[in-house]
């Protein structure tokens, strides 16, 4: 399973029918719900972004009530959450290869025409982690960029923050992650 759906960083503040900021609902909560509902696959791949490195998890204000809305910050935060989910699943489901990656800043509709990364490289790490027999792809709890391990934001590896995020997602969705 590759978690790739997302809305971008130029988003204005909009709320879902459940009064959730739509960036969080789409980029974080839906990823959690899909993971919880599909059972335990052999591999899970979560797309993050290099923007996650400058983000703070902000689990005390995921609704953006204490902060002024910033679409770029909301996107970066959601991509940090995705990495946190990947690493939480890696801890909780030892038989599953669960990893996160950044595809790079590529010239897509989301990235825009000025994006400077190699479009041909963007998909390779996803496919490699999802299906390769390469021993280097059969790992769990890692972060990658262009087929190479990369150090993620330290908050993404914080088990206490991961647990808080999962508890928050469980509470908001009423969908519980199997043990």
Automatic annotation (TrEMBL):
Keyword set includes Membrane: yes
InterPro entries: NAD(P)-bd_dom_sf
Record's keyword annotation contains Membrane: yes
Annotated coiled-coil segments of the chain: none
GO molecular function: oxidoreductase activity
Superkingdom classification of source: Bacteria
UniProt keyword terms in alphabetical order: Membrane, Oxidoreductase, Transmembrane, Transmembrane helix
Record-annotated membrane-spanning stretches: 20-39
UniProt family annotation: Belongs to the short-chain dehydrogenases/reductases (SDR) family.
Protein name per Swiss-Prot or TrEMBL: Uncharacterized protein
